[in-house]
Write a structure and sequence with these properties.
Blueprint lengths: L2 E6 L14 H18 L3 E4 L8 H13 L5 E8 L8 E5 L5 H12 L5 E6 L4 H5 L4 E8 L3 H6 L2 H13 L11 E6 L3 E2 L3 E2 L4 E2 L7 E7 L7 E7 L3 E7 L6 E2 L7 E8 L4 E7 L3 E2 L3 E2 L6 E2 L7 E8 L1
Parallel strand pairs: 1-2, 1-3, 3-6, 4-5
Antiparallel strand pairs: 4-6, 7-8, 7-9, 7-11, 10-20, 11-14, 12-13, 12-15, 15-19, 16-17, 16-18, 16-20
Length: 306
């Protein structure tokens, strides 16, 4: 199983359950996190969420149409349950026992977060389960009107549990939060370092010419600007793990950096020629580290998620 369709249930025009938290808001959060985590593990994932259907019938037809446009191994529908505050726990709905093993694995993984395991249930009457070309499951993550479930629920943990059920990979064990590599004068690219380790050199008078930040760790949403010797400021916008911040083969030092992260609390510091280490500074898209107009090269960087 390497290719998936995933969608969040309902939409703002066809609202789902809403009590202690809102189903539409949270199924989108979980859906987005699952997609990001699955892609980081090398899976191909299509987002088949519908936000345009104005009726329940339109919403369901739009979802199925999007799903059937793709040739996949499994369709996954993400929902949250409700029952006047009386029910709690996780259950996974399926059309037939063809998906029994994967559905049970997901149920078990979510239950390990503390939710009651309500098991796998067969439903022949649900439109999405009946009409998709590929086998489909519907995950009722937990109950949005249950105080028990609301106290346990966390979107990121829920998504990681779903990924564990799908792949067997536990993303919460020894999880790298951030990784980064640098291109160093006379050395070239370093191997990636992680979580606050030093990338670059100290006391060797070697310029840091470029860095790459692997944004796949922790599904980081980051952007970057850099001041480069002989070039000036360059705005890279939103970066990914392949973005080279700086230059390679031009003998230009990085002199100043401005990093931003919108979905994690990232801090970083730089080692600057003739000055030494800066203070730890939040990647807020405003603060800069280094200098402009002083011809002082950056020599090393450390980045961590706190």
């Amino acid at each position: 199983m390497k290719i998936l369709n995933i969608h969040g249930g309902h939409n703002l025009k066809v609202p789902g359950a809403n009590k202690l938290f809102n189903e539409v808001t949270e199924d989108r959060k979980v859906k987005d996190l699952v997609i990001g985590k699955m892609k980081s593990l090398g899976y191909t994932v299509y987002d088949c969420t519908d936000d345009s259907g104005k009726t329940q019938n339109e919403n369901l037809k739009n979802i199925v149409s999007k799903c059937n446009d793709n040739t996949v191994d499994l369709d996954i529908s993400i929902h949250f349950n409700a029952s006047n505050g009386q029910g709690h726990g996780v259950e996974v709905l399926q059309y037939s026992d063809k998906t029994q093993a994967i559905a049970q694995n997901i149920c078990n993984a979510i239950a390990q977060l503390g939710f009651k395991n309500r098991g796998v249930k067969e439903r022949k009457d649900l439109y999405v389960l009946k009409k998709t070309k590929a086998p489909a499951i519907l995950i009722e993550c937990c109950f949005c009107d249950s105080e028990i479930d609301a106290s346990l629920y966390n979107a990121n943990k829920m998504a990681s549990a779903i990924v564990k059920g799908l792949t067997g990979v536990d993303l919460t064990v020894n999880k790298t939060k951030i990784a980064y590599a640098g291109h160093i004068q006379d050395i070239g690219w370093t191997a990636p370092v992680t979580d606050g380790a030093t990338c670059g050199t100290v006391g060797e008078n070697r310029r840091l010419e470029a860095i790459q930040i692997d944004t796949r760790h922790s599904n980081l949403d980051m952007s970057a600007k850099a001041h480069i010797a002989n070039v000036g400021w360059k705005d890279y916008g939103k970066i990914n793990n392949n973005t080279v911040i700086g230059t390679v083969g031009q003998s230009n030092a990085l002199e100043c950096l401005c990093l931003n992260c919108t979905n994690a609390n990232i801090v970083y510091r730089v080692h600057q020629a003739n000055i030494g280490w800066s203070s730890w500074t939040k990647a807020d898209g405003i603060s800069t580290l280094g200098s402009v107009g002083q011809s002082l090269q950056l020599e090393a960087i450390e980045i961590k998620v706190i």
